[in-house]
């Protein structure tokens, strides 16, 4: 039996999250034929990978999806999970995206004569251009060490955690102190659970400082408009762990030292397991000190901004530690003796681009691009952390990146342009 001929489309968008729908918004407005392929349901990550008490860690005013800025009653607040879902549903309803939910893209490859072959679970397509909007958080990271954890201990990744009541009675070990790890540890701590937290190298920042949200100060200082090539770390910033802070209950700092003073047990980074005995790196004191150094450094940059512009604001302050670990504290933990009933792995996600058969990756398997534009004509990335600026993977700036790519797509579509059009900034 002869296979049906591939269906022709101008642009294939892979991924139906906020990035995929943002580029779709611009393509719809320009009348550019395209399809958005989403193997699950649109925005599914926000429904399936967030715990019950989840809320934004950035103020609502930063929610600026294209044509759909936040218009609620609390721009300086932090939307909770249900409010986020309602905001995203409103964005989807604000235009009519050509969305194919439940359709997985299994392979994308350049065609010799131009364009791309796109294999999906719903048949074959040929696309003139392709936008990869599947994000950088596809596969949960769980260490091989987890395979040797005793079966009696429940293990789950942060994407599976919902609330303290869903875990068995007993102590809980949270591994990782980035945004998810710190917030889940706090969620369990506030519920009265005995929490052990394996602390990594995540930095922290203040929620409010000198009368305003720190995010608002940093926005005024232009930090969120800084392109990646101007950041002191250049592309290395893409590997950085996000600062931990919370928008819970109107927003506040997360201070792991205060949690320790209240009974949370802090450990260094997890290193090894022998039987039921875990060993942690001797980095706890250094990790806490470095997180506080960054906290104070951010505040000091705000101090300079205030002084240089003569802004009236409450006086400055410097955080001083409220608790210090003993020299050997947090080096070991016996799961059985400590009554550990569950482990929540909060060590992040990795992207999955195995389906993309194109020469656009570096030696570490990361996509090479300039503001999402690759050297492969007509192939783009959108929604990755620091694709262009800090907000590229967030509600705050994905619209700007999507507009940039829509301009490129339209230029390639209409002009008989030289190849370097696809890679110029």
From TrEMBL:
Q: Which UniProt keywords apply?
A: Oxidoreductase
Q: What is this protein called?
A: Flavoprotein involved in K+ transport
Natural source organism: Labrys wisconsinensis
Q: Which SUPFAM superfamilies match?
A: FAD/NAD(P)-binding domain
Q: Which NCBIfam families match?
A: MSMEG_0569_nitr (TIGR04046)
Does the record bear Cell membrane in its keywords? no
